[in-house]
């Protein structure tokens, strides 16, 4: 009877004690979260309640397993398994706690500077994201190494592994050269303020917003909701446009090809009227000028300003559409045309106007009912 009750008391007591401590801890975190609405720390810490309870349960079972006297022949294997689970759950708990602390610090910083310096907030967000990835990777590596060191065979081979670490490091560095370069490029982007999450960029002719930055790759969400994934080393080795760099204010251009007879001054006044009714225009400046001519058309350029990249796009398309519609309705002669009539040439010395092909009209033969004009 004692052999049956002892395991039930040990295992059952560990489970009950884990549930009680876990419930009490979660209750205290909820109370703290209700009292302190200005900080999300306590609510974020509640995300670690599962690894926290798992650490408690495994620690209690690992400490009281000898008293349970259960499966004596497999004591070493079960103890080894409990140790591995304890290390893994502890690493999981450390990552959750670190994420809660880092996220709380970022939230306070963002709330204080969101309106005054949004560019710096995006920069800090990029750095925080990469820091959390690095912390998670370090904790994972340490946990894996700790698990391996629990096996006697790995402890015995530790000396030989350390002796050959130099050669292995050189071989791994050569084999993973591109990966290492991407990782260093990720750190350079995070702390060099080259590009941040939320920045509007143009890469390889594609316009989009930086959606995710990791240590090895970067994702850009285009205006048509496609995702372009590229290595972060691209941004350290090739030129790209960052429309969010510095102040978000931008100046955009709109081009038209119109006839030489187009009313430029009237177009300039129409541009002013269009922008006054366009919410995307920030009112800083506008202009309309003739920038080039061809034998058939002339090029007219409009300059408009807006507070950011999204508004400059909206203003440009609105100006382009409304100006073309206004020209088609009010000044259709100003639209580009293809001349199909013969050119009018000056009269020759004898008073006759030569034909375009060089043959005088008097020498032409007329057939049928056609007669030359008198």
UniProtKB/TrEMBL annotation:
Record keywords: Membrane, Transmembrane, Transmembrane helix
Top-rank taxon of the source lineage equals Bacteria
> Which Pfam families does the record associate with it?
MS_channel_2nd
Transmembrane residues, as ranges? 6-29, 77-99, 130-151, 157-176
**Annotated segments matching region Disordered:** 343-374
Q: InterPro entries per the record?
A: LSM_dom_sf, MscS_beta-dom_sf, MscS_channel_2nd
Q: Which residues form the Mechanosensitive ion channel MscS domain?
A: 179-245
Q: Where in or outside the cell is it found?
A: Membrane
Q: What is this protein called?
A: Mechanosensitive ion channel protein
Q: What is the species listed in this Swiss-Prot or TrEMBL entry? A: Streptomyces lomondensis
């Amino acid at each position: 009877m004692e052999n049956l009750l002892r395991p039930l008391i040990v295992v059952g007591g560990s489970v009950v004690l884990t549930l009680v401590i876990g419930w009490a801890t979660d209750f205290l975190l909820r109370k703290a979260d209700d009292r302190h609405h200005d900080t999300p720390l306590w609510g974020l810490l509640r995300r670690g309640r599962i690894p926290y309870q798992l650490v408690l349960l495994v620690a209690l079972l690992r400490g009281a397993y000898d008293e349970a006297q259960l499966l004596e022949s497999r004591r070493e294997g079960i103890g080894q398994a409990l140790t591995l689970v304890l290390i893994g759950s502890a690493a999981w708990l450390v990552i959750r706690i670190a994420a809660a602390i880092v996220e709380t610090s970022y939230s306070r910083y963002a709330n204080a500077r969101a309106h005054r310096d949004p560019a710096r907030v995006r920069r800090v967000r990029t750095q925080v994201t990469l820091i959390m990835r690095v912390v998670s990777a370090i904790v994972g590596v340490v946990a894996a190494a700790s698990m391996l060191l629990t096996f006697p065979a790995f402890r015995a081979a530790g000396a030989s592994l350390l002796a050959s670490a130099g050669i292995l490091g050189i071989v791994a560095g050569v084999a993973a050269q591109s990966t290492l370069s991407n990782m260093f490029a990720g750190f350079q982007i995070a702390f060099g303020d080259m590009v941040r999450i939320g920045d509007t960029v143009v890469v390889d002719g594609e316009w989009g917003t930086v959606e995710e930055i990791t240590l090895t790759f970067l994702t850009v969400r285009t205006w048509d909701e496609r995702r372009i994934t590229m290595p972060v080393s691209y941004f350290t080795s090739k030129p790209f446009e960052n429309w969010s760099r510095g102040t978000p204010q931008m100046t955009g251009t709109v081009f038209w090809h119109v006839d030489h007879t187009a009313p430029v001054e009237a177009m300039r006044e129409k541009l002013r009227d269009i922008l006054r009714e366009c919410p995307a225009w920030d009112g800083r400046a506008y202009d309309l000028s003739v920038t080039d001519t061809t034998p058939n058309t002339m090029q007219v350029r409009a300059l408009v300003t807006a507070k950011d990249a999204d508004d400059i796009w909206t203003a440009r398309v609105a100006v382009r559409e409304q100006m073309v519609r206004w020209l088609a309705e009010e000044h259709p002669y100003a639209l580009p045309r293809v001349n199909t009539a013969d050119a009018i040439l000056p009269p020759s010395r004898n008073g006759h106007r030569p034909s375009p092909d060089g043959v005088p009209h008097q020498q032409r033969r007329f057939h049928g009912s056609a007669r030359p004009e008198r």
